[in-house]
Amino acid sequence: ALTERLSEASRTLGQGLATLPVTLSILPDYLTRPDSLRLLVRLGIVSGVLVILALLLHFLASRLVDKLGVRLPPVSVWPLWRKIWSALLTVGFRVGPYIVLLIASGILLSLLPVGPVLAALVALVISTLIIYQLVRAMALVLLNPDEPTARLLPISEATARQAWIWGRRLIALSVAYYVVTHSLVIIGTREDVYHLAHGAMVITFAVVLSVLVSCLARAQRPPAVESPSEERHRGRANAIATLQSVWPIIVLVYIWGAAFFALASFQQGVSYMIVASLQMALVIGISLLLLWAVNLAFARAVTMHERVGQYLPGLEARVLRYFKII
Q1: Nearest by Cα to 185 from 199, 195, 173, 175
Q2: Strand ranges (E), 89-239
Q3: Is 144 left (phi over 0), alpha (psi -120 to 50) or beta?
Q4: pLDDT (tens digit per residue) in 20-77
Q5: Burial class, 231, CB count within 10 angstroms (exposed 0-12 / middle 13-18 / buried 19+)
Q6: Rounded Cα–Cα distance for residues 257 and 250 (Å)
């Protein structure tokens, strides 16, 4: 079944590439029709009014945030209530204007109807902007690389800046994927065109995540060992070093495996991969717990009381020598 889905996906992708020039050649004829021109003029008026209203609302929200920020007394360390208040203001003033814009778009589209498809596209764009501003504002109040005193997460400046940069990229890419795929569904494009756009966005997402994993793998530091001569610290450092060298490969395999299943439109593959991963993590966790319990029991058995050493002198040294030989 999986090979059939792969062959079907590759076939539809090839058909989409072959029919794309024909689709683009038909587009000018469609736009020159009188009814299409009327719809485009109405859409242009609605879009222009909405853009001007969005700029005005954004300007008013920025002024209100600046005034509220000036009224608060400057302190070097913000208390928790002030951080939460600042976070609520940031999220509210970033999302509120677009909610007003969504209401205004409904009123304008009722006065200047542009058809169900174009109205759905306008609603999709504005609702996506609301989700984008909400997620971006939440990431900003958690990381906030420009104002460390207002940051909710207790992380360093460099970590906050890098996380903010990559967070913005992933949020923008997710929004682009959502808008492109849902716009094609609303327009009612052919299945091959949809698979072409969907495949391009999935590959782009996988490439960006792979670059992120590579950057994190290069930025990680080797484990510091205070006493390299001790076997306990050395074993822990070796385990951490092994994990640091292995986890990027595991994550890359999962990323491209999920992309592979998404390209093949095999939705059960992603769920199967997640369930199998959780089962494997459970087995590894139980195994490590058993090893820790056996090691603890052995350590307590070997560490004998002084009275036992008095009755059997040299027994502990013999047992330890025996296990070293094994």
Answers
A1: 195
A2: none
A3: left
A4: 666 666 666 666 677 767 777 888 888 889 899 989 988 888 888 777 664 555 556 6
A5: exposed
A6: 10
Q: Which amino acid is at 154?
A: P
Site of tokens 């090839």: 14
Rounded distance, CA 54 to CA 101, Å?
7
pLDDT digits (tens, 9 = 90+) for 183-202: 888 888 777 677 778 888 88
Give the Cα separation of 151 and 153 in Å (integer): 6
| Residue 93, C-beta contacts closer than 8 angstroms, at least 6 positions apart | 61, 62, 64, 65
Nearest to 82 by CA among 99, 62, 68: 68
Place of tokens 């490439």: 207
Closest CA relative to residue 217, chosen from 241, 247, 189, 238: 247
